[in-house]
Design a protein that fits this description.
By secondary structure, this protein is an all-alpha fold. It is built from nine helices and no strands.
Length: 223
Amino acid sequence: MASHLDLEEQEQLDELKHFWKRWGDLITWVLIAVLGGYAAWMGWQSYSAKQAAQSAALYDTVERAALSNDMALLDRSVTDIKDKFASTTYAQQAAMLAARLYQDKNRKADAKAQLTWVIDKASDEGYQALARLRLAALLIDDKAYDEARKQLTAKAPEAFAPLMADRLGDLAMLQAQPAEAVQHYKNAWKGFEPNAEYRLLVAVKLAALGADPEETPAVESKK
């Protein structure tokens, strides 16, 4: 009986040896790949969490500097967060905040530089569009109309299209192009939600130009 069991065990052992001889290397490499991928994923999660925490702390410093009007601290902290955590949302928010404060302090060149950085580096198209709108306003103030138009006609999320159109209307008015302004304002009016307060402002601009936002172009009758 014992010898019979020993025989079966030996056969099973031989089969197991044969199996590992044939498939052992493959199984080992698959396990290494799976475990390596898991370790890499866990490492990335840890790295991302650390990056988020550090960038959040730096953004807090930027906010404190802005609230206290500490321009030296603002300059350092916004540079740090952009240099070290450029891909984070906090860096984009910090640049936008710094741009606003620089504008308030009449540091237009610095404000433009921050907004341009957001346009070039931000991963969020919404931040890019907002930066384009604000940069266009600064360019319009400087009478750099062609540069402003480039910002306002660049690709942007659909939600920003009415705001871009409205600003293009303002730009057309500054360049004494009322017909173009009317068309831009109509595009803006159509793009806003019916209950949007900004839509009322656009309607006022159209009324000042003697235009009705709901008016459709007359179609000439065929002779």
